[in-house]
Amino acid sequence: MVHRLLMHWRGAQKTDEIPNLDAVLSRDLGDLEPCLYVLDIRDIEPTFERIGGHLLADGGKGLVGEPVSDAPKNTLLGEAVKYYSRVMVKRIPITLGGEFMNDKGKTILYRSLIAPLSDDDGENSFLLGAANCKVQEE
Fold it and tell me: Quick check: 124 pLDDT over 90?
């Protein structure tokens, strides 16, 4: 999933620029859609602009329009957004994987990507994130 989303991000680039939000989201993202989220980073604290179905089901419900700090801990969305500030500073896609214990006591293995996106004026205004996971077998 991470590799495929990175290919969509690179495919929407014009030269070495940060691609436009609409250029990436207008592509056929297929089964990646439920795993995506978009952060609006134009305010002091980023807010969720969009959250895909899989992430809504795992802690994201009711977070659209809310600050990133409201993402619940021990959820896929909460883990996936933890390193957004690094992407804001470096202005490059960063992928991260790891594990966490969910609220049911299960160990969750996850992989995520956060990539910078621009607005229509070319400003770095959004972050596109994606994450997927599986329960570690006992």
Answer: no
